[in-house]
From TrEMBL:
It holds the Pfam family DUF446. This is YqcC family protein. Residues 9-104 form the YqcC-like domain. It comes from the Bacteria.
Length: 109
């Protein structure tokens, strides 16, 4: 098992917690059509926070739980910066979690 796995699991929990705190968590499940987007971050069908909640977090949790190899690169922080730069609010804690996740997954980012 990758030595980073427990740290990754911790970041997933932090991201979820901060999204809930910021009111970005939803009980409304997107349609199968929306979840089947082939575009990066499903930008054509989902808001960024929907993609994080319904695609990114479940996939990463499965990887962690099954002990599968971690991705070798992540660009979620840069996407989050782009998305949240256009919104009002204190996004620094959430952005920091995404940044730390990216640095853990791809240290050169």
């Amino acid at each position: 098992m990758d030595a980073r796995t427990s740290e990754v699991a911790g970041f997933l929990l932090l991201i979820e917690h901060e999204m809930r705190t910021q009111g970005l968590w939803s009980d409304k499940v997107p349609t199968e059509h929306d979840l089947s987007s082939l575009e990066p971050f499903s930008v054509d069908r989902l808001d960024f926070e929907q993609w994080v909640q319904w695609i990114f977090l479940p996939k990463m949790k499965t990887i962690v739980e099954r002990g599968q190899p971690l991705p070798s690169v992540s660009g979620i922080w840069h996407m989050a910066e782009h998305v949240f730069a256009q919104r009002r609010g204190n996004w620094k804690p959430l952005l920091k979690h995404f940044q730390d996740f990216d640095h853990l997954i791809s240290p050169a980012s």
